[in-house]
Structures are given as structure tokens and as C-alpha cells.
Amino acid sequence: MARAIWNVEGEIQNELDPSEIVVWTGQPSAWATFIFRRPDFIVGVILLIFSCELLLRVANAPAIDKPDGIMGIILLGAFPLVGVAFVASVVFDMIATRRTAYAATDRRLLIVRNLIRRRATTIAPTAINVLEIREKWDYSGTLTFRREEEGDSVKKFAFVGIPNVREVARHVKELRMSANEQAS
User: Fold this and answer.
1) What is the C-alpha separation between 1 and 3, in angstroms, rounded?
2) Would you give the DSSP letter of residue 78?
3) Which residue in 30, 135, 165, 182 has the fewest CB atoms around it within 10 Å?
């Protein structure tokens, strides 16, 4: 059974309050998602290469030199599984971009994902205290907004691979300013 075509506007409308106004909507690009998640991909590939090398050494070693017990399990199973998990999570995120939508409204920011199960993340403007823009030559890019808490706690969200990232950043800044004015 084929899944119905995903309606971005409809998914966002399902999350809105009756009087809420959408200022901007967009979707991530798969390539930008890969670039954003490349550290995880690199760690996964390094773990896979390292574990394959270890597995080849263990397979070609004399029976006396082969590790027993927990070390043998770690060498033979854990490293490759962790490497595959890292690489698979990046590939999964790239696939999920087709069913991910971003929205900026007059009250909040939304990230809606509907791949295996539907999940909507709401970011209140008061929860954003740092805004980072990474722009490419074609004016697309990644807008990262985060909330730095006391100590080492940092909550990070991003609109990854969106066109005209500066325009969206301007909307987010206006949203933050209006929220700060209302709080005063």
C-alpha cells in the first residue's frame, strides 16, 4: 500500500492555533542534512574501518592469540554495530527530509516530521537566546537556534538546508523581539 503524498501546508495547518498566522514555511534538503550530520557519518565510517581491520586481524590470528570473553564480543560485535548505527542514522535523516517541514508563525517556530510516526516540535521565541546563520553562495543555508542554560546544558534546534536563510533569520529575530516586548 503506497503512502499518500505528504502535504506540507496541511501538516503545518494541523499544528496551528485558530488565530495563528504562518509567516514562512520550508523543507530541508537531503544534501544539507548530510553536510549538517557529517561528523556523525565520519565517526561511523572510522568505526567501521577500525572494526573491520580488527576483525581481519582476529580472523587471521592463531587461535591462541584470539581474544576471549567480553573483549572478544566487543571486538567482534560492538564496534561494527556502533559504526553502522552512526551511518544509518545519517542516512535515515536524509530520507526523512522528504517528510519534514519547517514553519515560522507569528507566535513560534515549528518542526514537523512524519516518517514512521508524526512528531511536531514547537520552539517558543523566549526559548531562543542564540541564533547562528550558516549561509552558502546561493543564499541557502542552515539556521540554528539554541537555548543556553545554566552550566553546560544547551538545547539546539535547526532549520537545515533552507532557501534564503537570511530572510528566515529576519523572521525569527522579529519573533524574538516581539516576544521580548510582550514579556516586558
Assistant:
1) 7
2) I
3) 182
pTM to 2 decimal places? 0.70
Could you tell me the three cell numbers for 67?
A: 581474544
44 vs 46: CA distance, rounded Å: 5
Question: What type of residue sits at position 132?
Answer: E
Q: How sure is the predictor about 1, in pLDDT bands with cuts at 50, 70 and 90? A: very low
Cell of 57: 586481524
Pairwise CA distance, residues 168 & 145, whole Å: 12
Q: What is the pLDDT of residues 108-162, one digit of tens each?
A: 999 988 877 888 888 888 888 888 888 888 888 888 887 666 666 677 888 888 8
Give the separation between CA 175 and CA 47, rounded to whole angstroms.
Answer: 42
DSSP reduced 3-state for 41: helix
Cell of 68: 576471549
CA 158/CA 139 separation, integer angstroms: 16
Burial of residue 101, with CB atoms counted within 10 A of its CB: 0-12 exposed, 13-18 middle, 19 or more buried: buried
N-term to C-term CA, the chain: 53
79 contacts 87 by C-beta, under 8 angstroms? no
C-alpha 35/C-alpha 41 separation (Å) is: 9
